[in-house]
Amino acid sequence: MTSLIDGLLIALEPANLLYAMAGAVLGIVFGSLPGVSATLGIALLVPLTFGFDPVPALIFLGAVYCGAIYGGSISAILLNVPGTPAAVATMIDGYEMTKQGRGGLALGLATIASMIGGQVSALVLLFAAPLVSAWALEIRSAEFFWIVLFAMSTVGAIGTGSPLKGLLAAIVGLAIGTIGAHPLTGEVRYTFGELALYEGVPVVSALVGLFSISQVLALAEGRGMEKQVEIPTVGRLWPGGALLWRLKKHLARSSLIGVFVGLIPGAGADIASFIGRSEAHRYAREPKRFGHGSEEAIVGAEAANNGVVGGSLIPMLTLGIPGNAVTAALLGGLLIHGLIPGPTLFQQAPDVLYPFIFSLFIANAMFALIAFGALRYIAKIVLVPQGVVAPVVAALAVVGAYSFRSIPFDIWIMFAMGIFGYILRRADFPLAPIILGLILGPLAESNLDRVQTLAGAADLSVMGFFMQRWITIILMVLTVATVAFSFWRDIRVRRVEDTRPEGPE
C-alpha cells in the first residue's frame, strides 16, 4: 500500500504530468499519421529519453503508447486511412459515419471507448502485475527457456499471416541475438573483430533501423499527396450520456477482451480490435447496421485495442517477455535505464514501476482531454505529405541511433537493419518476431546453459531434465501445439481459397 500511495504521488507531480501530456500529444501525432505507427513512434523516441531519469522516461513512453493506439482512429474515421493497424476495424464503420455527416460522433465514441479501454487495462495491470511477478519468482531456468520459446512460437506463428514466414523471422531474430559475447562463458561470436559488437547488436539501433529506416524506404516509394485533401466537417464530438449508457456493456466487454488478448504473445491491438468488433456485432441490437455506421462497432473495436496496452505490459514487466513490437520497443526503454524486466523488478524498483503504472491512468485521461479540446486542429496532421514525413523520420532515426552509445558504427548497424527490414517488408515477412528474437535470444540462451549445467550435475540428459516438472511439460506441449495449429490453420485457409469459385457469383 505504501508503494501504491508513493507511486500515485510521484505520478501526480507537475513535471511528470507535463511528461504525460507531451507523450500523449506526440502519441496522437504518430498514431494519426498514415504510414507511421505506435512502434515506430516509440522506437524513435526511446533514444530521446536516454538523458531522462527512469520515472519520467517511462511516463513519457507509456503516454506515447496510449496516445498512438488511439490516434490511429483519427485518420481512419476521417480519411478512410488507418493510422495504425489497430484502427482498421474502426475504419469500417467510422468512415461510413463520416460520409453520413456523423464524423464527430464517431470520433467522440472512439475517444471515450479508447479512454475506458485504457483505464480498465491499467487497473488490471496495477493489481495483476505484482501477483504475476510473485508467482514468476517460482519459475526455474527450464520454465523460463520454454516460456521464451512459447512466446516466440505465438508471435512468429499466430501473430502473422504466414506461419512459415513468421517462424523464419523469429529464428533470424534469435540468431542475431547470439552475436557478441556468450552470456556465461564470455566467448565472442560473429563480431568479425568489431569491438562495437562485443556486447551484441544494440537494441536501440536495431529497433530504429527495423521499424524507422525500413518505413522511410517504404514511404519513399510513394509520391506523397498529389493534392490537398479536405478534412470533412467534424461536428459535435460529445456523444451524450444516454448513448454511452446504452453502450456500457459493449465498452466493458471489449475492454476486458483487449486485456486478455494483450496477455497473449503475438496477439496485438489489431487482433483485439477485430475480436471486440465481432463480439459487439454478436450482442448488438441492430447487427445489420454493422458496416454501415454502427456505434457499437466503433466502441467495440476502440475499447478492445486500447485494452491491449495494460495487458501487454504484464508479461513484459513480470517475465521480461514483450508480447508485441510496441512492448519490445518499450522494453528497450527499460533496458537503457538499467531496469531489467523480470520477476524481481517489482521488488527492486517499485519506486519506478508504480509511478509508471499510475501514469497510464493519467495518459488515458490526457489524450481524451486533448482530443475533445483540440481535435479539430490535431486532425490536420493527417494531411502532412509522406514526402515530408520520411526525411524527418530518417533524421530522427540517425540522431537516435548515435545518441545511445555515441558510437558511429551504431549508425551503420541501423542502416543495415533498416535495409534488411525493408527487404523483409517487400517479401511480406513480419518484423516484430525479429526484434523479439533479438531481445529474448540471450535470455533463452543463458537459461538453456543453466539447464545443461544442472542436467549434467544430476547425470540427466537435457530432455530428461525438462521432463522433471509438469509446468515445463505443459509449456513444451503448448509450444508444439501452437506451431502445429498455425500450420493447420494456414493449410485450411489455403484450401478454402483454392475451392472458392472465381469471378462474379
Structural summary, described in words:
α4 (54-79) runs parallel beside α16 (350-378), α7 (141-158) runs parallel beside α21 (470-499) and α9 crosses α18 (408-426). It is globular and about 70 Å long. It has one domain. Mean pLDDT is 81; it is low at 223-228. It has a two-stranded antiparallel ribbon with strand order 1-2. The longest helix is centred in the N-terminal third of the chain and has 34 residues, at 103-136. Helices cover 73% and strands 1% of the residues. It is mainly α and 505 residues long.
Annotate the secondary structure layout:
Elements: H1 2-11, H2 14-32, H3 38-45, H4 54-79, H5 88-99, H6 103-136, H7 141-158, H8 163-177, E1 180-181, E2 188-189, H9 203-221, H10 241-246, H11 248-263, H12 269-282, H13 295-319, H14 325-336, H15 345-348, H16 350-378, H17 386-405, H18 408-426, H19 432-457, H20 462-466, H21 470-499
Antiparallel strand pairs: 1-2
Helix pairs in contact: 1-16, 2-3, 2-4, 2-16, 3-4, 3-9, 3-14, 4-5, 4-6, 4-13, 4-14, 4-16, 5-6, 5-13, 6-11, 6-13, 6-16, 7-8, 7-19, 7-21, 8-19, 9-17, 9-18, 11-12, 11-13, 12-13, 17-18
